[in-house]
Each structure stands twice: as C-alpha cells, then as structure tokens.
Amino acid sequence: MAVGKKTEKGAAEVEEGETAAPMAAGKGAKKGPTAEEKGKGLAAEEAGKVVVAYGDTITLKSSDGKPFEVSKEAAARLSERLAEMISAGGCSDGGGIELDSIGSEALERVVGYCNKRDPVAAAASGSRSFEFSTAAPSKELEDSDRELVDRLSTDDLFDLVVAADFLKMDGLLDVTCRKIADMMKGKNAAQIREIFNIENDYTKEEEEEVLQEHDWAFGE
Questions:
Q1: Which of 75, 117, 148, 192 is least enclosed by beta carbons within 10 angstroms?
Q2: 171, 133 Cβ separation under 8 angstroms
Q3: Is 80 exceeded by the pLDDT of residue 207?
C-alpha cells in the first residue's frame, strides 16, 4: 500500500512510494515479514475502515462447526462481508465467526485462498509471493487458483461459487465463474445439461419451438 505523505499509524511509518508487500522472489526482491515484524504492520481497509495487524488470525466456523484459522488481514481485505463482521466485533469474544451457510470443504478452500494472499501465512508455507487486492496476481497465484478449481467436482465448484458470493469475495468469485464459463465453452444445450446435471423440463415440442425462435444462437 502506498501513501502520499509520511504518516504514523501506531509505531509504524510508511514512506511515499513504499509498499507493504514484498515483490515476487528474484534479484533485489524484499523478503516477507520476519517473526519480529509479525503484528507490527497495520492495514486499514476502506470498506468499514477495518484495521488489523499482519500476523493476526481469526477463526471461521463452517456450518458443521469445524473451525479454520485464517489471516485476519487477508480475510478483511478479500471479503467485504468478513470485513463488515470484523468491524462490527463479530470475533471479539474469541469464539470466532460462524458461517452457517458454508460447509467445511468449501470454507477450507476459502481459507486457503485467503492465506495464499497474506504475507505472513504465505511466508510460513514457503510461498514466494503474495498480492494485495490492488495488485495484478502473480503467476504463482494464477497457477494456484487454476489448480484449485481444476481439481474440483462440479458440485464442489458450485459450493465454492456460493461461498464466494455469500462472502462477497470478488476475486474468488471471478476465478470460479471463469472455470464454469470454460466448461460451457463450445458445448450445446444437451452437453451443458449433462455436465451440470440439469434436468430438461421442456417437452419435445417446446424444445423444437425454442430452437426455431432462436436458431441464430444454436447454429453451427
């Protein structure tokens, strides 16, 4: 994050042109936060003005009560709904945030997506790069996102779409919807119904009528 003037937030100072994120690994690249630096950097989110320290975590609980630890900074930055919950003190009692509409498998993938984009969590897992929401995704993150959705079953993919939509995570929603669009590309109506297990509720006559009315859309 860059600021126009030298400002003070707690004990942390940020000079003009400096960023809070290290660049991808390479010559001259800055390393991620050290253990001593964890919790010292502060991030302020425009949505709700959520202020959290790097290295802090929160607990998210799935619909079946399974807890997951996630970077508090990344959760607030990437999810508009989680930012609102954190700002409202949703995790202040230490019990975590309960997400009754998200199952444990989908929530685990959401948490992994967030932690991949957190400097402390990424450094701990050996990841070489992470990105703020204002930066273009690195190739490492793009490959990670592609691997995430490519290995999912259709049902799991739709569960992740629902989770991303509920949490207002535009980045994850874009990744999952792009995968669905790729699955539909070049397929006819019958093939799409088969892929997504959609029941055809048209009679033969009704389907013929639709095809004739919109023949431009179904032409070879």
A1: 192
A2: yes
A3: yes
Distance CA 54, CA 161 (A): 27
Whose tokens are 């010292």? That residue is 40
9, containing H or E segment: strand 7-9
The separation between CA 183 and the C-alpha centre of its own chain, rounded to angstroms, equals 20
Helix (H) or strand (E) holding 13: strand 12-14
Q: Can you spell out the DSSP letters for 91-126?
A: TTTSS-EE-TTS-HHHHHHHHHHHHTT-HHHHHHTT
Q: Do strands 97-98 and 57-61 pair parallel, antiparallel, or not at all (unpaired)?
A: parallel
**Contacts of residue 126, Cβ cutoff 8 Å, sequence gap at least 6:** none
Question: What 8-state DSSP symbol labels residue 30?
Answer: P
Which three-class secondary structure state does DSSP give residue 14?
strand
Q: Is the pTM of this model over 0.70?
A: no
What is the spatial distance between Cα 124 and Cα 39, in angstroms, rounded to a whole number?
14
- Does residue 118 contact residue 129 with C-beta atoms inside 8 Å? no
Query: Residue 13: what pLDDT?
Result: 39
Q: How many CB atoms lie within 10 A of CB 33?
A: 19
CA atoms of 69 and 96, how far apart (whole Å)? 9
Identify the three-state secondary structure at position 57: strand
The per-residue pLDDT for range 9-46, each reduced to its tens digit, is 433 333 333 333 333 334 444 444 544 444 334 343 34
